[in-house]
Inverse folding.
C-alpha cells in the first residue's frame, strides 16, 4: 500500500467532510449489549437517537448475546 502526500490527504479529508456536512440521511448500526431485554434496549437506543434525528425506520433485533444489533435509518432534524 502506497502512502499519499500530506497535501493530497488533507484535500481528500476536506472533500469528505463537505459531503458529510451536506448529508441529511444516515443508516447506523446500533450494537445492543444484551444485558437486559433486547426490546427494552432497542427502545432506549431509539429514544436517545430521537433527540437529534428523525427516525425513518428501525430493523428488528438480530443476533444473539453480545452480537445483538439493530439498523436505524435516520434523517437530521432541521
Amino acid at each position: 500500500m502506497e502512502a499519499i502526500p500530506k497535501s493530497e490527504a488533507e484535500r481528500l479529508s476536506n472533500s469528505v467532510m463537505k459531503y458529510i456536512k451536506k448529508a441529511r440521511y444516515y443508516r447506523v448500526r446500533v450494537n445492543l449489549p444484551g444485558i437486559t431485554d433486547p426490546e427494552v434496549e432497542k427502545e432506549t437506543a431509539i429514544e436517545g437517537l430521537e433527540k437529534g434525528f428523525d427516525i425513518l425506520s428501525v430493523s428488528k433485533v438480530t443476533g444473539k448475546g453480545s452480537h445483538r444489533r439493530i439498523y436505524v435509518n435516520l434523517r437530521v432534524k432541521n
